[in-house]
Write a structure and sequence with these properties.
With 395 residues, the protein is α/β, with parallel strands linked by helices. It has helices at residues 8-25, 29-46, 48-62, 68-91, 97-101, 109-118, 132-137, 157-169, 181-189, 221-228, 258-271, 339-351, 367-373; strands at 104-107, 121-125, 147-151, 173-176, 193-197, 207-211, 214-218, 232-242, 245-253, 307-311, 326-330, 359-362, 378-381. The protein has 13 helices and 13 strands.
């Protein structure tokens, strides 16, 4: 279905959205912040699926750096903070510039001014804190530059039109997800400051990086646009520093590469993990050949936290990758047991280790069942032969 198609459901969502906005408009920002925390606590209590996802992501990121109790506590705090930041982001458009500035602290502005005077810049931003403020903040500081953002339009075209209109009102130039890289590069080459949310999961076409010490793929877009546009890279992030108060940080990224962008985002996430949007399955493997990206890593690269694969079938099965990239275990399970018992067993296996399981190998007849009961962990057929493709560098 096209994004421009307006359905009855879209119209109802739009009406609910505007009514909810009107209610928030009547409340103080502090009240909206605390209301968001309350909503977050409710979602945490009743949404076991989202609670599991956030906790899993935190374990994947921090491993044994945090104890089980610390991870559980942080999971609850993430729900509260996300609720607060989400609701206040709906309130922000109704505040004056002075009201917004009274809620903000800035860090690294001098470096940012110096950089924008030299030419174009690509601002690498994570989904962290009240990220709607990032679109507003660049126009509240005393800088003479064009600002644009690369974004994914909302599925609801009516709500999306409202959001776009408000962003354009301040002079923000919008580049939808399907915009050509030529347009993005030209904007930077002409001296513009382009913001890109670059912490989301990408497929095997992404750049192979280490993120929190783990092999994964990251978006190559920020560093490619910076190179083609002859610009620089910088980090632009937001963290909560008090009730309805935030800090906007600018930091230069010294190297123009995908790994440098990943390192910058990791640094931002580590600085205030409670502000990070941990609800996306960031490290989830996907595709028919989910491990082919491992061929992109050089043999001498140290991998602090390799992926973790567990074979559940009776016969031992080894994936054709070295242990430095993916550790492999064998845990034979009884598939005749009930779904409840099997789910508990899979969770026990996943939690018995420094990080959760990335891949389960299971008999072909049990693929769907294991995937469903394991929380949608990537599940591959144990009977299949997995031959790694040869990367271009190895030919």
């Amino acid at each position: 279905m096209s994004r421009s198609t307006t359905t009855l459901s879209h119209r109802l969502e739009y009406c609910a959205y505007r009514i909810f906005e009107w209610i928030l408009k009547m409340l103080s920002l502090e009240t909206v912040f605390k209301l968001g925390e309350c909503v977050g606590r409710i979602v945490y209590r009743y949404s076991s699926t989202r609670r599991y996802q956030v906790n899993r992501n935190l374990r994947l990121a921090f491993g044994d750096e945090k104890s089980t109790s610390e991870t559980s506590q942080l999971t609850a705090e993430v729900f509260e903070r996300t609720g607060a930041n989400f609701l206040t982001s709906l309130k922000i458009p109704f505040l004056s510039d002075d009201e917004i500035l009274a809620r903000l602290q800035f860090e690294g502005l001098d470096d940012f001014y110096t950089t924008t005077r030299k030419g174009g810049i690509v601002m690498v931003s994570p989904h962290m804190g009240n990220w709607e403020l990032l679109a507003q903040a660049v126009f509240l500081v005393d800088g003479n530059f064009r600002a644009g953002t690369h974004y994914r339009p909302l599925n609801n075209s009516l709500i999306n039109a409202v959001v776009e209109r408000r962003r354009k009102r301040r002079g923000l130039e919008l580049f939808a997800k399907r915009s050509s890289t030529h347009r993005l590069s030209s904007f930077v080459r002409e001296g513009g400051a382009m913001g890109i949310l670059a912490d989301q999961r990408v497929g095997d076409r992404g750049a192979a990086c280490l993120f929190f010490g783990r092999p994964t793929t990251c978006s190559p877009l920020p560093h490619l646009i910076a190179k083609r546009g002859k610009g620089l890279l910088a980090s632009l992030s937001c963290e909560t520093v008090g009730i309805a108060h935030w800090k906007i940080s600018f930091r230069l990224i010294p190297t123009i590469s995908a790994q440098a962008c990943a390192d910058s985002i990791e640094q931002d996430w580590r600085r205030s993990p409670v502000d990070v949007f941990w609800f996306e399955n960031r490290w989830r493997l996907q595709g028919n050949d989910p491990l082919t990206f491992l061929n992109k890593y050089k043999d001498d690269l140290k991998i602090p936290r390799p992926l973790r694969a567990v074979n559940l079938a009776r016969e031992e099965k080894k994936l054709p990758y070295p242990n430095r990239l993916i550790t492999q275990e064998h845990h034979e399970v009884d598939f005749k047991q009930s779904d409840h018992a099997l789910r508990e067993k899979l969770h026990e296996i996943s939690h018995h280790g420094e990080t959760p399981v990335d891949i389960f190998l299971a008999p072909h007849s049990q693929l769907g069942r294991v995937k469903k009961l394991s929380g949608k962990t990537m599940t591959l057929a144990a009977e299949r032969n997995y031959s790694p493709e040869i990367s271009p560098n190895e030919k």
